[in-house]
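Worked Example 4.2. Consider the chain below.
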Amino acid sequence: MTASTDVTPTLKMYGKMLTFTRIQLHSNDLQQIDAYLSENLSNKNSQIPVIIESDIEQDLNSLIDLFWSWGLQPIGVVTGILDEAAKALRLAIFPGDGKRIERIRPTKKATTTLAESIPEPSTSKDANSSDNSDAAENSDAAETTDSLDNTTAADPTDSADAEQQSLSQSSSDFSGSDTMTTLFYDQMLRSGQSINHVGGDLVLTNSVNNGAEAITDNSLHIYGRAQGRLVAGATGDKDARIFCQRFNPSLVSVAGTYILHDSIPKDMIDKPVQVRFVEGEGLVFEVLENY
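Applying the procedure from the previous section yields the following structure tokens:
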């Protein structure tokens, strides 16, 4: 009898977005910190993973014991003054914030009902007024608005930790939506810009540059060169997909599972590609024939 040659690999490494809480400390007085936790935490069994950030020296060992006593689970620190203490305790060291990126907020949603798409009879004067209104609305759609209150992403780096932290914070911006609405965006998404859409597909009819990001909780369609960070199914939709006319991203993510550029199959680069999530396999890449 011949023994099976199939061997289960010792380990498997893959990317997965995780949610964590970031604690910024402005004091190293453990009694004050304990008092604050006492006032603000009611559940000592929350098991919340936390990242510690501080610009002042801390008794990190004692601080970790205090957090554990309140059900918080320190997994690392933000790089800085705590680096050496964190290494001694074998904690992860996370990169600091990169530059803030500019969020694009198109004001015009393209999906409408049939009743909404049929214009009401109007006089010539009304028609001219409507044309002016549409022109103003399209102009507004091209403008960018204020930068994020919280940094949603840093510049692309070779660090998977930096990308994971970035996307975890970005996905936390999404909330439930009762209406499915496809959003079209016709301009190039430039480096340092981000477009987020919740409640339907996101369709970009132009290119996404390096250093930009396109994020949606449903499927993402890009009819141009797709670089930067591409995220579909940001709230966990495993049926979401990404379709690109020319695929070359720094990061691609579907339903929380992500891959960095160096791990993308080389034969997919600059091809028309579909990306989807398959349970047990992770991200699956397919070249779209006749696309």
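Residues 135-287 form a domain with the Pectate Lyase C-like fold (CATH 2.160.20.70). The longest helix spans residues 124-141. Compare this with Example 4.1 before moving on.
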